[in-house]
Amino acid sequence: MKKISASSSISSPEELQSRTCKCRFLARYYTATTLENGGRRFYRCDRIGSNYCGYWNWIDDKLSRHVSTMIHNKKVELDSIRKEKKSFEEDCGGYGWHWRFLFEGYDCR
Asked: Which residues form the GRF-type domain (predicted)?
């Protein structure tokens, strides 16, 4: 079973190097969205439950509280917008045409 690291924008060649967890799989690349560490990038074992080996490696230094909080709040806002969009799509059915009605102020409910 081979694991492939997630792709993302990484700024330096040393960060592009794959990381192997203690399970000998490629560690997965993530960006934290928590209040405490919003925006910090890290690698961790991609396995779950009892198979998780505990591998965790921060790529970035800790960000300022202000920046971390701002990133977290934007993630919460984005999640809310995605939830609203999904609800709208389910209520109106289909994709594509619904954005025209949304921006024109039309509510299909």
From this structure: 21-62
